[in-house]
Write a structure and sequence with these properties.
Blueprint lengths: L2 H14 L5 E5 L13 E5 L6 E6 L22 E4 L9 E4 L16 E3 L23 E3 L12 E2 L7 E4 L1 E5 H8 L3 H5 L5 E5 L5 E5 L5 E10 L5 E9 L2 E10 L4 E10 L1 E7 L12 E10 L2
Antiparallel strand pairs: 1-3, 1-6, 2-3, 4-5, 7-18, 8-10, 9-12, 10-11, 11-18, 12-17, 13-16, 13-18, 14-15, 14-17
This protein binds 2-acetamido-2-deoxy-beta-D-glucopyranose (2 copies).
Keywords: Signal
Length: 294
């Protein structure tokens, strides 16, 4: 690509991306690394195959509309037209808030920066895009933990009628400010808080408030690793009554279970590449829907 086309694209970005500091990635493959945040990658511009913008890799596909096919433009000025073949074959309108350097801080050497002065704040909440659940008898949101602090801490015993083992609460909004977007951002469905499995360990919730409970559904996403295997197990009196294995992605998913007569539910994540538990096997859970048996 010649110098003049490069500056053309820099200008093009300058004119479109008002108010965000974004980063151009050049000669980086589609989804190639362009930021210290591993949740970011290079999105090729619709009209140029080796120039792109560095953005968050996991926005919800259903929120990206196709670009105008005649001229690869987007109607809304807070989106730009990029390739995102994991979502759609044709180019999509991608939110400029997700190419901000506060989301995807640059790796200093390999990339060229487009500097635009910014005064606006980023609408972080646009990334919490999971659809609202239908009416739930008892929704555990992790947003009503008394005296919750910003740093992840164990979920207090008795919260919502359960003993929690290897379960931390996390203020995702704060986590984003420090670490940038991650799968936790996608797991966040309500408020600021989610539950996470401490150090990637197996998480257990043990009922201590009723005879038994039903687990209806939950929202879950892997923190930083795609294709984790999550095994959810329901038990009563030490006997396994239900098991479900799902493949976890950084994109959030809703898991419908509708299991009843439980006293314990366990969540165990496994990375296909290694048996170690740690950052790789961390996940976030929000909006656990349960019902206590009367
Ligand atoms: C792109 O095409 C649409 C309709 O075909 C038109 O309304 C719009 O003005 C065009 N945009 C540019 C920048 O040419
Ligand atoms: C969560 O973090 C956000 C961002 O730092 C902060 O505004 C909010 O007050 C925090 N919530 C709690 C309960 O600490």
């Amino acid at each position: 690509m010649t110098k003049s086309t490069i500056s053309y694209f820099a200008l093009f970005l300058l004119s479109i991306i008002a108010q965000v500091r974004s980063q151009v990635c050049q000669n980086v493959g589609q989804y190639g690394q362009c930021s210290v945040n591993s949740a970011c990658g290079c999105f090729h511009m619709a009209n140029a195959d080796d120039t792109g913008v560095c953005g968050f890799l996991w926005p919800s596909c259903s929120h990206l509309s196709p670009c105008n096919s005649a001229n690869n433009t987007c109607q809304s000025s807070d989106t730009i037209c990029v390739h995102h073949p994991r979502c759609q074959n044709s180019p999509v309108c991608y939110p400029v808030s997700m190419i901000d350097q506060r989301v995807c801080p640059p790796t200093t050497t390999t990339t060229q920066q487009t500097v635009v002065t910014s005064t606006t704040s980023i609408p972080w909440s646009t990334t919490a895009t999971t659809p609202v659940q239908p009416k739930c008898p008892r929704l555990i949101t992790f947003d009503d933990i008394l005296n919750a602090v910003r740093i992840p801490q164990p979920i207090p015993p008795g919260y919502s009628g359960f003993q929690w083992v290897n379960a931390n609460y996390m203020n995702v909004t704060y986590h984003e400010q420090i670490n940038g977007l991650s799968g936790y951002s996608n797991a966040l469905t309500s408020g600021h808080f989610i539950a996470v499995n401490k150090d990637g360990q197996n998480l257990h919730m043990i009922n201590n408030a009723a005879k038994s409970f039903s687990l209806k559904s939950l929202i879950v996403a892997s923190a930083s690793n795609n294709n984790l295997i999550l095994e959810i197990t329901g038990k009563r009196g030490g006997t396994i009554s239900n098991t479900r294995r799902i493949t976890l992605q950084m994109q959030s998913q809703r898991v419908d279970l509708d299991w009843s007569y439980l006293d314990t539910v366990s969540f165990s994540a496994e990375d296909s590449k290694s048996s170690a538990k740690g950052r790789e096997t961390s996940f976030g859970i929000d909006n656990l829907c349960i019902e206590f048996t009367k």
